[in-house]
């Protein structure tokens, strides 16, 4: 104590000497220095002159041994993870090796595994409290995985515990892994623990594992994943467990004797597959809805992958038993997603992206159901009707966003039109209403309805993308009308030729080309008039461009290939159309140049 007092007195005396020296340099002395302290004047910066920030000591850059990876991360983190993984594999191989060679008693093997697992958990907690967070995470994850090994072996291979006890222990381990990963805020703990849990049945497998045991075990692990997803947003964790879940299901299903028996429905596999699907459906959006968070692309991708995986696997299970009605299974799934999308949209207004994703999936399943259940022209008609419904629902929810799902379905409908022959057989109620014509009319009406819906719901939003998309829809509609009229005219003249093969071919060909020229010219004129009436510049230009094609046809083809009477009619019709359009441009040019007075 006395020594400390002497040191303090020496430091105080040193400070006094320094103060006295400074006072002497400043020209003051004694107590007056305390009454009127002299403060150093800080020179104000001149306006417009930047004041230099204080210099900070620069830290040496981290040395990297690999591109994008620091030396600390390589040796401190990845070596830790690989070391734990090596020990986990050593424990797993030890349990299997001792089982095959009967070196240690069954109870002794399990006890060793449990002791090592609990020891790892304790070591991980110790390092967590000592602030060696990353180092401790490896031990915690490894301990969880080793506990999975031990309990699984005790039940499946050694029969030391009953099934209820094994499942209770599995639930406790899963709950521990989930809570520890949340407590440490560490996806690494969850990944190492859960991945170790998924690997257990395959590392210790002897080829005689029960399908019920495997699927129930995986369902318990997935329940732990759902618990973590409720508190944390870890996409990589969800993706890995999703992958391992469906891989485990496929492996377990293939090992079942009923997997390749088309006469017997595998109820067990279908039931567990549905359970896995529902769990990951909840994992995908449970936290987002609870906290009203925005959905990331990773969340939406998991929803899509889950739907694709479930339908693909369930299709394989059902197709041999409901082959004639398999399309209704896709419709059923589509209706489920539709109900979910509408419910979430109304209940949780802030989750619009989720609602649109669910509605897109509903549209996808219904679109898929149509060719699975129907055939021929009914596929095209159904797709056309579905495209209108999807456009309507999507525009009601988010009119500022282009409904790509509806656009894709409409594209499928248009492409399917060209897979059927456009022929007239004479058995139709009306000669022009053949099956292909009816399908074309449905698609044309659907496209026109979509143009009207899109214009009505998006005219308040002045976005360049909307105007371009609307113009593309209008052009598509007119191209469909032109193609339909052309095919219908050609099919009708082919039908006339089939009725009388001795008819004058030259006369029929001239009549056919005359009708084509007149119909095309009238359609171009209608487009130009419509463009003036609705002030649609894009439609006017499309009409002018198509009229240019008609002019080329008349002057280049009709002039040399039509007989004289039909040639006269062709040029007369074209001349009348051109004069009428020219008069419209002179009479209503103010609609283009903005003049309010008529000429």
Task: Describe this structure as you would to a colleague.
- The protein is mostly helical.
- Among the domains are: 74-209, no CATH class; 374-503, no CATH class; 515-599.
- The chain is built from 21 helices and 2 strands.
- A two-stranded antiparallel ribbon has the order 1-2.
- Helix 3 runs parallel beside helix 7, helix 8 (211-231) runs parallel beside helix 10 (267-291) and helix 14 (377-397) packs parallel to helix 16.
- Mean pLDDT is 78; it is low at 31-68 and 594-599.
- Pfam families: DUF2339.
Describe, in short, the structure shown.
The protein is mainly α. 76% of the residues lie in helices and 1% in strands. The chain is built from 21 helices and two strands.
């Amino acid at each position: 104590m006395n020594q400390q007092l002497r040191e303090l007195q020496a430091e105080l005396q040193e400070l006094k000497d320094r103060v006295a020296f400074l006072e002497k340099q400043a020209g003051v002395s004694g107590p007056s220095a305390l009454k009127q302290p002299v403060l150093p004047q800080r020179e104000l910066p001149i306006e417009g002159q930047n004041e230099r920030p204080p210099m900070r000591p620069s830290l040496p850059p981290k040395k990297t041994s690999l591109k994008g990876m620091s030396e600390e991360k390589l040796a401190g983190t990845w070596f830790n993870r690989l070391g734990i993984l090596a020990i986990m594999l050593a424990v797993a191989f030890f349990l299997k090796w001792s089982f095959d060679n009967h070196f240690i008693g069954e109870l002794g093997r399990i006890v060793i595994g449990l002791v090592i697992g609990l020891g790892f958990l304790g070591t991980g907690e110790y390092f967590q409290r000592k602030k060696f967070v990353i180092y401790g995470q490896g031990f915690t994850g490894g301990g969880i995985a080793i506990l999975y090994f031990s309990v699984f072996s005790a039940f499946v291979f050694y029969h030391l515990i009953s099934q209820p006890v094994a499942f209770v222990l599995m639930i406790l381990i899963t709950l521990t892994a989930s809570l520890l990963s949340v407590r440490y805020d560490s996806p690494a703990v969850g990944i190492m623990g859960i991945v170790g849990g998924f690997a257990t049945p395959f590392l210790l497998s002897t080829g005689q594992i029960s399908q019920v045991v495997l699927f129930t075990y995986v369902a318990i692990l997935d329940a732990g994943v759902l618990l973590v997803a409720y508190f944390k947003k870890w996409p990589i964790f969800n993706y890995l467990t999703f992958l391992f879940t469906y891989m485990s299901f496929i492996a377990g299903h293939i090992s079942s004797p009923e997997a390749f028996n088309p006469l017997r429905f595998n109820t067990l596999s279908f039931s567990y597959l549905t359970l896995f699907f529902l769990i990951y459906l909840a994992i995908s959006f449970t936290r987002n809805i609870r906290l009203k968070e925005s959905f990331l692309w990773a969340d939406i991708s998991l929803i899509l992958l889950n739907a694709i995986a479930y339908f693909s696997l369930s299709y394989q299970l059902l197709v041999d038993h409901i082959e004639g009605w398999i399309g209704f299974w896709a419709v059923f799934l589509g209706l489920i997603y539709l109900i979910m999308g509408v419910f979430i949209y109304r209940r949780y207004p802030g989750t619009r992206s989720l609602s649109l994703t669910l509605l897109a999936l509903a549209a996808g399943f219904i679109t898929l159901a149509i060719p699975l259940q129907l055939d021929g022209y009914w596929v095209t008609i159904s797709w056309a009707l579905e495209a209108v419904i999807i456009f309507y629902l999507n525009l009601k929810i988010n009119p500022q966003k282009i409904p790509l799902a509806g656009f894709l379905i409409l594209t499928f409908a248009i492409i399917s039109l060209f897979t059927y022959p456009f022929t007239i057989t004479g058995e139709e109620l009306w000669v022009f209403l053949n099956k292909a014509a009816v399908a074309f009319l449905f698609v044309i009406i659907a496209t026109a309805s979509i143009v009207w819906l899109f214009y009505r719901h998006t005219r308040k939003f002045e976005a360049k993308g909307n105007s371009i998309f609307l113009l593309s829809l209008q052009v598509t509609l007119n191209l469909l009308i032109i193609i339909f009229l052309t095919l219908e005219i050609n099919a009708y003249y082919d039908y006339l030729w089939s009725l009388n093969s001795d008819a004058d071919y030259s006369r029929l060909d001239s009549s056919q080309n005359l009708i084509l020229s007149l119909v095309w010219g009238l359609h171009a004129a209608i487009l130009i008039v419509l463009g003036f009436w609705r002030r649609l510049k894009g439609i006017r230009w499309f009409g002018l461009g198509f009229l240019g094609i008609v002019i080329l046809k008349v002057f280049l083809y009709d002039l040399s290939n039509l007989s004289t009477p039909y040639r006269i009619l062709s040029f007369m019709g074209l001349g009348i159309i051109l004069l009428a359009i020219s008069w419209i441009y002179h009479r209503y040019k103010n609609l283009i140049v903005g003049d309010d007075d008529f000429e």
